[in-house]
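Hey, can you fold this one?
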Amino acid sequence: MKRECLTIIGTAHVSANSVDEVKDTIYEQHPEVVAIELDRGRYTRLKNEMMGIVEDDTISVTQIIKDNKVGLFFTTTLLSYFQSKIGEDVDVKPGSEMVGAIEAAEDLQIPIALIDRDIGTTLQRALNKMGAIEKAKFLYGLLLSVLGFGDEEEVDIEDLKNPENIDDLMEMFKDEAPSVYEVLVHERDAYLAGRILQIPQDHVIAVVGAGHKPGIEKYLDNPETLPPLRDLEKIDEKNGIPWLKILLAMIPILFVVIFFLAFFNGINITWNIYEFIAISMIMGFIGSILSGSKIQSALVGGLVAPLTIIHPLLAAGWFSGLTEAKYRKVKQSDIKNLAKIESFKDLWHNNIFRILLVVIGTNLGVSIATLVILPSKVFIPLFMKIFGG
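Sure. Predicted structure:
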């Protein structure tokens, strides 16, 4: 690829003007290659939509929970919601400019280069880099926006392509979520630039999000600063000491220790064990049923609650959520329909929301039992007996 023969088109992903700009530029320049900001999975989905191929869009929530990818799925769902919502507002389907690029390239029989990193890799790297506080802050902000408590100021989509506005937006994003910014923006700038440099043909048009254009150009002008692409494709394990997990694990360990000490001090703990089991099961059941679960899901959440309190790597909500997922089949349309939600009633009829609500509700009920009811009703009285209080 010759730098002087490269044209980078910075687009807003839900902009009608971007679609026209992309098509017009490709037809006018007739490049040797059209590079688009898509990975293989997203490209395949777009192509199937273009050809009218209806895919089985059932999402296996069961597999998501078993693979411990709930956080990744939840984040992807929220981000999809925002892009779909903006697309609904401006009457432009997200990814339309990429469809336009594909259509123009195919019409002129020009090869297409897919230059983006796999979306799963990108989001997993972002989640791995985020600390607990940053992750909570980021998800809290996303949820507020979903529920309509965010900034209601209208933004002109075309203004988002203005370099000055992009700089301001990127700086705000960097301040609010530096780890997310690093992965979603800075890393992808490098990855996109590296993939462009790998294209053997000379005359290339690259279609990318406007926010990436300045970073890509910077790397292309200074290719020696590019990190190896294989390093940007790795999903590293989280570094550092997981203090929050350690603290949460200490609670059930403390419960077991108190039971153990009471037993070896000759204190009858039979009734206390019954109380522990009953309170755990009742709160798991109540938390699940109040979140709108099926009775079967609530029963499962309640039955496993005592075990999950003792076992720090298990959560009752996963079990009730898995049960709920068997009765509520989640489809891609549920994600798309998030953009059409205008009231709590709409949200209530969305299967993604309902399953996540069951998971959260069950865990909340068990957490109240663990942190409030059980200590006051079972473990503090036992502790006082052990030490003669």
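Residues 86-92, 152-169 have pLDDT under 50 and may be disordered. Let me know if you want another pass with a different chain boundary.
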